[in-house]
């Protein structure tokens, strides 16, 4: 049975003349008047994972190697299929996920997923379909070719509301710096959005720390998240990263404040994530360095913070009586 939205689309398509394509092919396009468009009843746009992953959303998460991109994406995917939560972001209704992994060895991603499932209080309620290289005798489908897109489409059903592409460089063949090479992927992503699905692209950061390759990728995206190591990160800390919102269409205030996430092993081997604002984390670092006798200018350089930010943290620390080291300049 058609819903109101589908009925409207069919009605508009019936009004439109067919446009002739090359080689005798026929394709339909839909145009509407201003009055018709303003009266159009689009389905309300909700969040799959609030607030940054909307329905019909196109999102990118990028980071340097080893920071935790895949761990992040797998947790997002499992939270979606189980109607759970991740890093304080909640899923209201379970949704199906197609996870396309182009890089990880099978045993590694199996271990990570097993750990996520064992540590969760929620059971899967929607499909979680995984495409991984070790199980593909003919190689992975590429998202920038018609053949690869057709293969991906064959795994999609009405239940699949999120497609995770992990990652762009392993699942496309175009040169990363060539803007035109992104055109087929962009068109495919827009078609998925038109069909009611969201796409989460996982990507690498370059040597400068920005997303690698053409910036044209970001043009159609609703959200761009950058995962970064804390300035004082020590490998012994394990999975710890900051999440920064570089593009957040329609999000403001507390929703886009950067956060720091730390993976913690609990008793019995279960894993959980501790979350705090990056602002709070930086305040703790500033207080620690103050109490070691470091002056404000050096703290700003050490933590890559503005001097005004350090000064603000110093005033707060003094007010709260947290400075215990004597004999240094404030």
Key features of this structure:
3 domains; two-stranded antiparallel ribbon; Rossmann fold; 9-stranded mixed sheet; alpha/beta; 330 residues
Could you explain the architecture of this structure?
The chain has 330 residues and is an alpha/beta fold. It has three domains: 4-38, no CATH class; 47-228, Rossmann fold, CATH 3.40.50.300; 280-319. The chain contains ten helices and 15 strands. Strands 9-8-10-11-5-12-13-14-15 form a nine-stranded mixed beta sheet, sandwiched between helices. Strands 1-2 form a two-stranded antiparallel ribbon. Strand 1 and strand 2 form a beta hairpin. The longest helix has 14 residues, at 69-82. The chain starts with a helix and ends in an 11-residue tail after the last helix. The mean pLDDT is 87.
Task: Give the arrangement of secondary structure elements.
Elements: H1 4-15, E1 18-20, E2 26-28, H2 34-38, E3 47-49, E4 53-54, E5 58-63, H3 69-82, E6 85-86, E7 89-90, E8 96-101, H4 106-119, E9 128-131, H5 146-154, E10 160-166, H6 168-171, H7 183-194, E11 198-204, E12 223-228, E13 240-248, E14 259-265, E15 271-277, H8 278-291, H9 296-303, H10 307-319
Parallel strand pairs: 5-11, 5-12, 8-9, 8-10, 10-11
Antiparallel strand pairs: 1-2, 3-4, 6-7, 12-13, 13-14, 14-15
Helix pairs in contact: 3-4, 8-10, 9-10
């Amino acid at each position: 049975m058609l819903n109101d939205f589908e009925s409207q689309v069919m009605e508009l398509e019936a009004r439109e003349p067919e446009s002739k394509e090359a080689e005798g092919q026929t394709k339909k396009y839909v145009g509407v008047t201003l009055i018709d468009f303003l009266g159009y009843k689009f389905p309300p746009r909700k969040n799959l994972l609030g607030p940054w992953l909307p329905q019909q959303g196109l999102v990118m998460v990028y980071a340097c190697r080893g920071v935790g991109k895949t761990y992040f994406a797998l947790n997002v995917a499992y939270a979606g299929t189980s109607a759970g939560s991740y890093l304080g972001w909640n899923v209201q209704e379970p949704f199906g996920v197609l996870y396309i992994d182009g890089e990880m060895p099978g045993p590694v991603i199996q271990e990570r997923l097993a750990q996520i499932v064992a540590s969760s209080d929620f059971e899967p309620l929607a499909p979680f379909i995984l495409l991984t290289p070790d199980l593909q005798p003919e190689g992975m489908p590429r998202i920038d070719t018609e053949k690869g897109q057709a293969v991906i489409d064959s795994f999609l059903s009405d239940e699949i509301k999120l497609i995770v592409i992990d990652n762009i460089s392993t699942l496309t063949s175009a040169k990363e710096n060539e803007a035109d090479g992104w055109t087929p992927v962009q068109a495919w992503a827009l078609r998925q959005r038109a069909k009611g699905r969201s796409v989460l692209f996982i990507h690498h950061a370059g040597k400068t720390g920005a997303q690698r390759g053409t910036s044209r990728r970001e043009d159609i995206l609703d959200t761009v998240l950058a995962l970064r190591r804390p300035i004082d990160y020590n490998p012994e800390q394990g999975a710890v990263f900051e999440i920064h919102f570089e593009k957040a269409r329609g999000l403001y205030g507390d929703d886009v404040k950067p956060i720091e996430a730390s993976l913690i092993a609990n008793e019995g081997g279960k894993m959980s994530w501790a979350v705090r604002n990056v602002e709070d984390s930086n305040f703790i670092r500033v207080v620690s360095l103050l109490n070691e006798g470091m002056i404000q200018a050096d703290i700003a350089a050490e933590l890559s913070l503005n001097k005004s930010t350090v000064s603000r943290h110093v005033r707060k620390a003094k007010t709260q009586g947290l400075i215990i080291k004597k004999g240094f300049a404030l």
